[in-house]
Amino acid sequence: MKVIAPNGDKLNLMPLNIGPSHGATHGCLRYFCALDGESIVATVGEIGYLHRGFEKMAERGTWQQVVPYTDRLNYCSAMMNNIAYCRAVENMFQLELPERTKILRVIISELSRMADHCICVAAAAQDLGSTTGFFYLFDSREMMMVIWEKLTGARLTNSYARIGGLYRDVYEGFEEDVLAVCKQAEKNLSDVHACFDRNRIFLDRTVGIGAMKPERAIQWGWTGPCLRATGVASDLRKDEPYYDYETYDWNVVTGTAGDVYDRLMVRLAEIEESIKIVRQALKRLTPGPIDIMDPRIRVPSHALAYQDIESLIGRFKSVYEGVRVPAGEYYYGFEAANGELGFTLVSDGSGKPWRVKVRPPCFTQFAAFHELVEGSMLTDSVATLSSINIIAGELDR
Amino acid sequence: MTPEAQEGNIFTSSLDFLVNWGRKNSLWPFPYGTACCAIEFMSTETARYDLSRIGSEYVRFTPRQSDVLLVAGTITYKQAPILKRIYEQMAEPRWVIAMGACACSGGFYDCYCTVPGIDHIIPVDVYIGGCPPRPESFFDAMFDLQKKVEDESYMKQRAERLKEQIEDIKRKSKECREDLVLRKNEACEMVSNTVRSKVNDVLDVFPFKKGR
Amino acid sequence: MNFFETLFPVLETKFNVEKDASAHWDHSVIAKASVLRDLITFLKNDESSKMEMLLDIVGIDYLGFQDYEGPRFAVEYVLKSISRPGNRVRVKVFVSEQDLEVPTISDLYPIANWQEREVYDQYGIIFTGHPDLRRILNHVEFEGHPLRKDYPAHRRQWLSTNDFLLPALEKRLESKGYKVVERSKEVLPNEDEYLTGSIQE
Prior knowledge:
The structure holds three protein chains of three kinds. Chain A has helices spanning 54-60, 67-71, 78-93, 99-127, 131-152, 174-196, 200-206, 214-219, 224-229, 236-239, 260-284, 302-305, 309-320, 361-367, 369-373, 378-387, 392-396; strands at 2-4, 10-12, 14-18, 30-36, 39-46, 161-162, 165-166, 328-336, 339-347, 353-359. By secondary structure, chain A is α+β, with helices and mostly antiparallel strands. Chain A has one domain (54-396): Cytochrome-c3 Hydrogenase, chain B (Orthogonal Bundle). Helix content of chain B is 51%, strand content 8%. Chain B has a four-stranded parallel sheet. In chain B, helix 4 links the parallel strand 2 (68-72) and strand 3. By secondary structure, chain C is an alpha/beta fold. In chain C, the strands form two sheets. In chain C, strands 1-2-5-4-3 form a five-stranded mixed sheet. Chain C has a two-stranded parallel ribbon with strand order 6-7. The longest helix of chain C has 14 residues, at 2-15. At the A-C interface, strand 1, strand 4, strand 5, helix 1 and strand 8 of A face strand 3, strand 4, helix 3, helix 4 and strand 8 of C. Strand 1 (2-4) of chain A pairs antiparallel with strand 8 (179-182) of chain C, so a sheet runs across the interface.
């Protein structure tokens, strides 16, 4: 492709397609660059390769049947999506959950956040050529997977949260397992820091690469760790606290430069903060009910359904008709691992949602991808892409 | 057994056995990972499950160097042509594993944009159920595939391939010959036409000779 | 609660907006499409609101909605303030099936570019003045708009060959001041393959 540059130079650019199936594109996304030598002059992104029709499927089932679909949005931290969706629906009922459920949801969310950040940094390390960092981070993640298996029966897509409660109470020995994971994660973090912090190759490939200014990041709608890496201390857990996050002792981690290094390090530091929250939450955990007692919203348990006819009818109605969410429209944003996961819910008062719109956090980050990489080298685009943590299931829904 | 073989470090075997032994213990996967199943495949690679036990740790991201196309995740209509092209780019012998409910049948995405199973596009050797399948079931699929590879006959395939090639050559040479004959006739016709027209031109110039 | 009670009268006098009766749990206003750009600019820049971030653009199809009379579609803009945490407002614009047009706000918020493309893709609502209104989630050969209520969920549409990004790349180069003199040959689509392609029904 022959072009004339703005300064009058004649350039011979090479168009290069990367993705949708490429080792460096995690999941299915594609970008198309015009290269001058090895530096990127212009690039355009294309998404939609994993568009699975989440929103159309959600309109076909009942409100509870959306929960398994939310698992597959951000599959690296599946339970967090369940909790975000259930909380949005519960807000429409204006429910107050039992204390134990709130604390359990905090523990599960923070563990999911740790798992998500582990995958993001591990994949970034793998892309930068550090297989050791990849193995260290996956080690503590595999321990979490064992907890998920014991808790829900599934490793990845768990569907643990329910509207008005949780699927079931935790098993015996849950606290010890979580504490063991926290300890192991701390050990692995120190190992990973030993790998990266003074590593010339890692620093050369990340510091100053793919930088974003805070004003521009806000205009692009960035949220979560990527926004915090630019220096904006915006975290919904502090700004609009839910589940008593304001009573825990933890800090919002921010970066300074907003480059690849900051984004990865903010994630690693957030794992430490999550460990802090989990430890505090475990101390508050007291026995108690986990479901609200309202057969119109939360399905009565099997034990009750086999004993009295009211609960049996409640079960039938809940399964066949779904919960009747009050008519109206609502937007709710939840601080997920990647940023603000928003649900716009439209209800017509029946048991089926009229419209469920997801606001995926990484959609906005990938939309700004061309600003991050234009002018840099082709190899830097790989490091940049892995640092903004694109999850295709969430990006394309 | 020949005396050389008895001296050690030499054993005899059928070529089929040897080739299949080599193939089945180094099945290099091409992970066409799109969704959740790809994350489980990443877990399979790591220390806890350790894919290198069966010689498959060498994940290749180019279809030209890999043996097994591992389709992990939902395939939508938007990426169906890409999957097909990647399959076409792989060299023989090639095998395909459909990992997860979405790749097998579309899973619970029964919708306007998802392909209901990748076998609408490419042939599949092993299907793995589950949403997503556990790493153990992935190993199970690899063992199934190894059994399948064991049963294949290199010599038979080679003979078939040779037969195909010979037929191909025959067909092509026949086509060439027909083409040549056709062209020869055309050329002759052209030449005769020009000669005739030339003669006519001459006759036109010298009309008096016409009468003779 | 306080911020919206002070903000709403200003919006009412300036832009003639109404409160959205269906928003029981957060704040939403209904605006006319003609004042949308002024309203969003005001919300973005004015000291009293400072909505710096556009979170989402949502399309809604009300075909067959219970006890509903009015235009068929609505487009909803979800805005959030960063400098004043906790302040959020939604702006809703009704769009009738006949004209289907809303002015673009992609010059005010860069992220609106992709979000408007998504609403166009799913509902067919045209954003006038949008620089590059293409499909984003569905493929190029897709016909119809899948999230409309009258689109059957099972109507599948095959794509024959991979879609093609060179025109978009050239547009991007031109927007940066480059001038394309000669287009590259090797990545131009083959006319035979394009739209008939390797995959057939």
